[in-house]
Design brief:
alpha+beta; Alpha-Beta Plaits; two-stranded antiparallel sheet; two-stranded antiparallel ribbon; 2 helices; 4 strands; Fe-S_cluster_ET; 4Fe4S_Fe-S-bd; 3 iron, 4 sulfur cluster binding; metal ion binding; metal-binding
Amino acid sequence: MRIEVDPDRCEGHARCWDISPSVFELDEQGHGTVILPEVPAELAEQAADAARNCPERAITVSD
């Protein structure tokens, strides 16, 4: 699976990082960024959960 964060939509709630710190990190302003754009199978459910919990729907998941 692939995952992306839209920097124009991210407001910096950090839920993605809190739920899936192996896939996301925070930049200097506290906005989520992806550190594993190609998510391994063992982290896929965690990353998808992070995307579902984004209040701005700034995270895109694709196969």
